[in-house]
Specification:
The complex is a heterodimer. By secondary structure, chain A is of the alpha+beta class. Helices cover about 30% and strands about 25% of the residues of chain A. Chain A has 3 domains: about 20-30 and about 465-600, Aldehyde Oxidoreductase, domain 4, CATH 3.30.365; about 35-130 and about 185-280, Aldehyde oxidase/xanthine dehydrogenase, molybdopterin binding domain (Aldehyde Oxidoreductase, domain 4); about 285-455 and about 610-765, Aldehyde oxidase/xanthine dehydrogenase, molybdopterin binding domain (Aldehyde Oxidoreductase, domain 4), CATH 3.30.365. Chain A has a 7-stranded mixed β-sheet with strand order 3-5-1-12-9-10-11. In chain A, helix 9 (about 360-380) packs across helix 10. Chain B has 2 domains: about 5-75, Roll (Ubiquitin-like (UB roll)), CATH 3.10.20; about 85-165, Orthogonal Bundle (DNA polymerase, domain 1). Classes of the chains: A alpha+beta, B alpha+beta.
Chain lengths: ~775, ~160
């Protein structure tokens, strides 16, 4: 399914079996809850009973024997009562204002889960309830009617190129559209789980199901009043994350750490599914409004976008989600006059957080729905309009970035349109034809995803990773890699080892990527932002190359009498003598007792320039590009939307492991089927209304249509070996492709996702017009 | 508390276990028998991560009370698959086809594959999907799981042909 890989690689580009697959199919992989922890106690949380209010007091029932349990109240916190994320507005335990229902007020640990729960039930919070903001609709209404001051603004940011307002003011016709998206739960199958225990040397050892070991440790320094080196964080085998285990685990990690330090024993907390859905982060609900003027020749003259995200109760990482949202909200088409304004307002629900795509799926729901209307206005087909206006090599993005290298457009668009026979099928769309037994529709979307941290973030961060020659678990010599990137299902453990092995000139099975532990791994950054393969892979590829040089030097000295030596494909070559296998030479080198270790630090291409204040410049080091085509059949009677086929073409740079890459794409697309058509939740009386797997419905094996998937490899040569981001772009564009297909099937534009039969009914029959 | 003692055949071995009357089969397997390959994903029989076979039938062990499992019952969990020819084939196909990502749904998914293929060695695409519809996976999009099951079915069919 992928194009031929570059023949100069031995290990990159091959579908090697995942190195963690065997343990997982044998049931041997130990997730947090599978680990034996002698003497462990169980954590539980006393939660706020109202979505907004003033806490007047916490009453601990005197009839309960509190000596059986350990409690942590705000006054027991050894450091500052604060969660140290992007914003500093969230207390670890609420003590005065309550900003969401379920906000932690006190922590309890007990020898059994049941006793911990019983203790929680013996605490009563006395509160004065205050009016709450509980929907994005309410937020947008206030924003539009000049009442924004009555909302808590968590962040705002603007992108400005040319003079969109001026052009729109003088334009004959301005096309306008408003688009909405709802909450989405990550729904990793392994629920959140963390454990902590006091260390003999002082400090605390925290383990759990996490994406970012180096988020948990620094974010807990203030609350625990401990220096970084006294907070050791180790990842346990992680059963899916999708952003849901990015910033969130700092909370349960902190609950366990506070309780463990007070109790002097290990404490763990594994969420049950109900609790996990109610009290963890969700994808930010969004509203976008597009106002666009077309030039007479069918080009885009000016585009103005407003974007609002519902951040939930506190800032957490919402500003970063907003930045990615606005950076993608007008990213796709040539236009010299662009304004994008973004706002995150607070509501009284659990803080929203990271979810695969990170603001970009919300942005593209708006942009790619809106572009469909622009095409019609221009008198062009949706395919023709996109081909005419799409960004290509040499074009300039809304932040003024020149797209110069690894630009897989318009190739992805052309290939997806060709493979799906789009143009011919467009003519067959039913447009709500009366009397039809089934309404057929086809829709397209075109989109990008910036890989890595925004702008020069990667340059400032300076991720590092290392490797060392030693013995692997089979007792034979090999390289152990040291990086903080986490395997959460996406295949990082395998793909990073492939890149390191390629750099080092060693076989794949001689390279091992362990679960990261902050005691031993350097900070190679969080496992987020579609950066791991591109950035950390690049670091390990280079560190591998350094290791190859080091091994060649040492082998020359100790095994080849000083002759010039070359290491390739696991064998050492020198002129005039027989090649010797890596393991034989490595045994000699290990016997010397000198550590053989290499390290590398990431460097951005020097031409990347970014102004974080003005949001001008090179917003991302590289972009992945894609086109999705969706075909649907809608039942005119039940209005059920049946997704029949997805055609998807992606340029994500060089493919490291084709089987894993396709697996990421299939998984991301199916998660987006849920986002587009099924997954619904709202806040009602302070809590998410769909709070179990019986009510929060995600796709099963029966909901997956035929999929025709293709990668086009526009290698990112500035960042060897050339991979760009893959994880997130899988979620950016399928929802609008389906929305556009539904429009062609029914003649009716749905402006909000998820698109359910009842939404279609309301739009078709209750007076709302297309 | 009332305790109950049962002897079952668990993964081809006689195991006697004593448990409290209200314990879920999932807890007895994980905590008393140490079979932590059996996963809890939802606790209400919706996600299928805790799927095990009782006398060949797939059940979600989080909503089966251990007391309901009769004396002498045969219980098969992911840990027992490698003792069985078909089990090993399915495990190998999952590894080779890329059917495993985070791995948390995998133990339950494998048991559904085993239950299907042990009864129907030539399932249609629809039958494969239906047999796994009770197992939620958030990583793979299911395609590579279906591929693995189909590959084992093809292998079984070829094996039958070659022995005929």
């Amino acid at each position: 399914m992928t194009q031929q890989s570059d023949g100069s690689f031995r290990i990159i580009g091959r579908s090697l079996t995942r190195s963690d697959a065997e343990d997982k199919v044998r049931g041997k992989a130990q997730y947090l809850d599978d680990l034996t922890m002698p003497g462990v106690w169980y954590a539980d949380v006393v939660r706020a009973p109202v979505p907004c209010g003033k806490l007047l007091g916490l009453h601990f029932d005197e009839s309960f024997d509190w000596t059986q349990v350990v409690t942590v109240k705000p006054e027991d916190i050894p450091g500052e009562n604060i969660v140290d994320m992007t914003g500093l507005d969230m207390p670890f335990l609420a003590y005065d204002r309550i900003q969401y229902q379920g906000e932690p007020l006190a922590l309890i640990a007990a020898p059994s889960k049941a006793l911990a729960r019983e203790a929680v039930n013996h605490v009563r919070a006395e509160v004065e309830e205050l009016p709450a903001i509980q929907s994005i609709q309410e937020m947008v209404e206030r924003h539009k009617t000049g009442l924004a001051d009555s909302l808590r603004l968590l962040e705002k940011k603007e992108i400005r190129r040319g003079d969109a307002e001026g052009v729109l003011a003088g334009a004959g016709k301005v096309l306008e559209g408003e688009y909405w998206t709802g909450f989405q739960e990550q729904l990793y199958i392994e629920p959140q789980g963390m454990a902590a225990e006091p260390m003999e040397s002082g400090g605390v050892y925290i383990r759990g199901s996490i994406q970012c070991p180096y988020y948990v440790a620094p974010e807990l320094m203030k609350v625990l009043n401990l220096p970084l080196e006294k907070i050791r964080v180790e990842q346990t085998v992680t059963g899916g994350a999708f952003g849901g285990k990015e910033e969130f685990p700092t909370l349960p990690g902190g609950y366990c750490a506070l309780l463990a330090l007070k109790a002097g024993r290990p404490v763990k907390m594994v969420y049950d599914r109900h609790e996990d859905i109610l009290f963890t982060t969700k994808r930010h609900p969004s509203w976008t409004r597009y106002r666009t003027a077309l030039a007479e020749d069918g080009r885009i003259a000016a585009m103005e976008v407003d974007m609002i995200l519902d951040g939930g109760a506190y800032t957490t990482i919402s500003p970063v989600v907003l930045y990615r949202g606005i950076l993608h909200a007008a990213l796709g088409y040539r236009c010299e006059n662009v304004t994008v304004r973004g706002f995150v307002y607070a509501s009284n629900s659990f803080p929203c957080g990271a979810f695969r795509g990170f603001g970009a799926p919300q942005a593209y729901w708006g942009l790619e729905s809106h572009v469909e209307d622009l095409a019609e206005q221009a008198g062009l087909g949706p395919d023709e309009f996109r081909l005419k206006n799409c960004l290509q090599e040499g074009d300039i993005t809304p932040t003024g970035q020149h797209l110069l290298t690894s630009v897989g457009t318009p190739a992805v668009l052309k290939e997806a349109l060709r493979r799906s026979d789009f143009h011919a099928k467009l003519a067959r769309c039913d447009q709500g034809r009366p009397g039809a037994k089934s309404w057929y529709g086809i829709g397209v979307s075109f989109f990008a995803h910036g890989a890595g941290f925004t702008g020069d973030g990667e340059a400032k961060f300076g991720s590092r990773a290392a490797m060392e020659l030693g013995r692997l678990s089979d007792g034979r010599p090999g390289l152990t890699l040291y990086a903080s990137s986490t395997e959460m299902g996406q295949g990082a453990k395998t793909v990073l080892a492939q890149m390191a092995a390629e750099g080092a000139g060693l076989p794949f099975d001689r390279v091992f990527y362990p679960l990261p532990d902050t005691r031993v791994v350097p900070d190679s950054g969080p496992t987020v932002a579609s950066r791991t393969t591109m950035v950390v892979g690049n670091i390990l590829y280079h560190a591998g190359h350094k290791m190859k040089c080091l091994l060649e030097e040492a082998a020359a000295k100790h095994c080849f009498g000083g002759a010039s030596v070359r290491l390739e494909g696991g064998r050492f070559f020198a002129e005039g003598v027989e090649a010797r296998p890596f393991e034989e030479v490595a045994e000699v080198l290990l016997a010397q007792g000198e550590p053989l270790r290499t390290e590398h630090q990431f460097a951005l291409p020097p031409h990347i320039r970014w102004d974080q204040e003005r949001f001008v410049g090179d917003a991302y080091p590289a972009y992945s590009w894609a086109c999705n085509v969706a075909e649907v059949e809608v039942d005119p009677l039940t209005l059920q939307i049946h997704l029949r086929k997805i055609t998807a073409v992606y340029d994500v740079g060089r493919i490291i492991n084709p089987t894993l890459a396709i697996g990421q794409l299939q998984g991301g697309l199916v998660q987006t089927i849920g986002y587009a058509l099924m997954e619904t939740m709202q806040v009602r009386k302070g809590l998410y209304d769909a709070n179990r797997l019986q009510t929060y419905i995600i796709p099963t094996a029966l909901d997956v249509p035929e999929m025709d998937l293709q990668f086009l490899e526009y290698s990112c040569d500035e960042l060897a070996p050339g991979a760009k981001g893959l994880g997130e772009i899988t979620m950016n564009g399928l929802a609008p492709a389906i929305g556009n297909a539904v429009r062609r099937a029914t003649g009716c534009r749905l402006c909000a996702i998820p698109m359910r039969p009842e939404d279609l009914y309301a739009t078709l029959y209750q007076g709302a017009k297309d | 508390m009332n305790t109950i003692t049962r002897t079952w055949n668990v993964n081809e071995e006689e195991r006697t276990v004593t448990f409290g009357g209200l314990h879920r089969l999932l807890d007895v397997l994980r905590e008393d028998l140490g079979l932590t390959g059996v996963k809890e994903g939802c606790g209400e029989g919706e996600c299928g991560a805790c799927t095990v076979l009782i006398n060949g039938d797939p059940v979600t062990s989080c909503i089966v009370s251990a007391v309901q499992v009769p004396e002498g019952a045969e219980i098969l969990t992911v840990e027992g698959l490698e003792k069985l020819e078909l089990g090993r084939r399915i495990q190998k196909a999952y590894m080779e086809k890329g059917s495993v990502q985070c791995g948390f749904c995998t133990p339950g998914m494998l048991m559904s594959s085993y239950a299907l293929l042990s009864r129907n060695s030539r399932p249609t695409e629809q039958e494969i999907r239906e047999a796994h519809a009770g197992n939620l996976c958030r990583c793979t999009g299911y395609e590579k799981i279906v591929d693995a099951v189909r590959a084992v079915a093809d292998e079984l069919e070829q094996g039958t042909r070659s022995t005929v």
